[in-house]
């Protein structure tokens, strides 16, 4: 694995919850009351970012599109 100076977990946070805070938007979190826009992958993306290429489930606005 190549080290680009950021852990996989930090990269995920930067693209989701941190981006939401920077943009002053209530996005990038999974919590009650929010519409679900998320993916489920095979593996642990906080350990290996390449698992994001193995999408098993896609949910947009609370609707399941791929399983």
Write the layout of secondary structure elements.
Blueprint lengths: L7 H8 L1 H6 L15 E4 L13 E6 L2 E4 L1
Average pLDDT works out at: 84
Radius of gyration: 13 Å
* Helical stretch tally: 2
**CATH homologous superfamily name?**
Urease, subunit C, domain 1
Helix coverage percent: 10-25%
- H and E order: HHEEE
Number of domains: 1
Secondary structure class reads alpha+beta
| CATH classification class | Mainly Beta
The biggest sheet, with number of strands, parallel, antiparallel or mixed sense and barrel status, is: 3 strands, antiparallel
The CATH architecture is: Roll
* Gap from first CA to last CA: 28 Å
What is the overall shape?
Answer: flat
| CATH fold label | Urease, subunit C, domain 1
Question: Could you walk me through the main structural features you see in this protein, from its secondary elements to its overall organization?
Answer:
The protein is of the alpha+beta class and 67 residues long. The protein has a single domain, classed as Urease, subunit C, domain 1 (Roll), CATH 2.30.40.10. It has helices spanning 8-15, 17-22, and strands spanning 38-41, 55-60, 63-66. It has a three-stranded antiparallel sheet with strand order 1-2-3, with no helix packed on it. The mean pLDDT is 84.
């Amino acid at each position: 694995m190549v080290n680009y100076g950021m852990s996989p977990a930090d990269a995920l946070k930067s693209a989701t919850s941190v981006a939401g805070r920077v943009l002053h938007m209530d996005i990038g979190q999974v919590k009650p009351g929010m519409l679900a826009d998320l993916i489920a992958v095979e593996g642990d993306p906080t350990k290996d970012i390449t698992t994001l290429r193995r999408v098993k489930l896609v949910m947009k606005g609370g609707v399941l599109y791929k399983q």
